[in-house]
Amino acid sequence: MDTHFAQRRRRDLIVAACLAAVAALVPLFVKDVYVQNIMVLTLMYAALSQSWNILSGYCGQISLGHALYFGLGAYTTALLFTKFGVLPWFGMLAGGAISAVIAMALGYPCFRLRGHYFVIATIVIAEIALLLIQNWDWAGAALGIDIPVRGDSWLKFQFARSKLPYFYFALALACIAWLVTWWLEDSKWGYWWRAVKDNPDAAESLGVVVFYSKMGAAAVSAFLVAVGGSFYAQFVSYIDPESVMGFQFSLLMALPAVLGGIGTLWGPVLGAVILIPLTELTRSFVGGSGRGVDLIVYGALIVAISLALPKGLVSVFGMLSGRKEAAR
Amino acid sequence: MTALLETRGVWQRFGGLVANSDVSISVGRGEIVGLIGPNGAGKSTLFNLIAGVLPPTQGSILFDGEDVTKLPAAERCQRGVGRTFQVVKSFETMTVIDNVIVGALIRNTKMRIARQKAYEVLEFCGLAARADKLAADLVPSEKRRLEVARALATEPKLLLLDEVLTGLTPVEAQTGVELVRKVRATGVTVLMVEHVMEIVMPLVDRAIVLNLGKVLVEGKPTEVVRNPEVISAYLGDRHAVGA
Hints:
- The complex is a heterodimer.
- By secondary structure, chain A is mainly α.
- Chain A has helices at 3-29, 33-58, 67-84, 88-110, 116-134, 164-185, 188-198, 200-205, 210-236, 241-245, 247-261, 267-286, 293-308, 315-327, and strands at 145-146, 238-239.
- Chain A has one domain (3-327): Orthogonal Bundle (ABC transporter involved in vitamin B12 uptake, BtuC), CATH 1.10.3470.
- Helices cover 76% and strands 1% of the residues of chain A.
- Chain B has one domain: 3-Layer(aba) Sandwich (Rossmann fold), CATH 3.40.50.
- A six-stranded mixed sheet of chain B has the order 7-8-9-4-10-11, sandwiched between helices.
């Protein structure tokens, strides 16, 4: 009975393993540092968007303030390393834990809000946090933190000469975020979250505690995004409030998932693979004019895709397999 | 043995509007009880109070011998109260079986078993063939049955049916009636709000008539329909004289 479902889940896992294996081999052939840089960013945003998708896609609580958790991860790691000499690996876990706790503390009042009001609250809270950091002298205020280079090592997670270690870490992070989503999708939490998104009243009548479900989604989502932020701090080795907690990060986490297919397993990956290279390429090829042409092109493409495929790019695969079934 | 469900002097006020005033009813184990009354009689409000959507302004609700007045809906579901909604509230982006799994998860922590259980419930409700369809793609009568299936998956002791037979074709309604009988045969107590008298009256063991927020009469369906007060509540005083 229902082997169809088990088959689909196994197929997803196999496809993901193959894609990860292929991605791992790419740097052997692509030596260009600029392209490698784009690949690192693409994988990082795939991971971030996948994490954002847990709260906003599966559980339906649209957050446009996830830059807060990204920044918290980056700052926790950077501050612990520069002020106390704590290794970034521990900083990463600490940043994740702090973000998860803060996400729940903020969720406590905010999850009583529905729809647009919740979205507005997330934006405002992230902006407040940005202002606080900008005025916090001990944390470098608006100048930010320069992470001192102490030589290449995995222990300190610093590599000045090569992008490859960052690439593999970003790949691992994307895989972890995907696997967590894959695993949660067929768990009690996954079903609860989707029920909460579709109809909270009906969910409550079936024994789902809507409030706890949202809290759980927020914690997992914030933890993973903060790990991404920690990674970014190590990757760029210099952070300031605007460059890790600016509103654009909140958007850049949401866009791949929305474009690829919100609340789907593959949407964020697909969206990131298309969107992030596009961002970088439009910036390099038409961004030099200084008139924001790159942003116009970029924006126009997003509008075009959303109009053509309102359910996201993953819906193309559904249409293709639907046609195959019809042809049989 | 004590009644499965009992409301004691329940009041519900919305500002100046009194939706339920001093409602005391009881539902025994294994019964099918119909809750009827004209529009605005307070049936849906009473339903929501029993399901725990909101606490009553005054009075208490006892379920299975315990006071559940203050408990939220999810907790009451845990204790054995299942419900459907008058306006169907399917999880539209999920498949039919996934809808039912949400209900099954409250008693089964293992996914494989919850899925198995959900499939059995779908078979029981005659929806197994639609298991992999999106809930959004079901026709209205199937959505009603999905509501019942989802509630049954929580293994309730008391099933609250809110107008599940309304707006169906006679054939669909008859299938619905048979489903309700089957549900009772498995030992589940049923309390149903219904409008369509000719369908509901042969089905229920007992009918409770609400009017203007109060219990008007209760008794055997055959007695209730002949009661002059009931006729006047539904059709106006002029018709009651002839009865």
